[in-house]
Amino acid sequence: MGNKGLDYTALVIAVIGAVNWGLIGLFRMDLVAMLFGQLSWISRIVYILVGICGIYMLTFFGRVRSGRQD
Question: What are the domain boundaries of the chain?
């Protein structure tokens, strides 16, 4: 039950990453790079967080398969 906040945070960050990839694919517009600079240290941190959250989201599959409701 204590992971709900972490789950929602990871979900929001993963959705932001997905929207950014959609913008890159559709319009060749990298929103993260536009906001923080091309591969600046802040951009790299954002990309790392999106990657970590995406990996964390894989745990949702295990929870759905086990039928666990947190």
Answer: 4-63
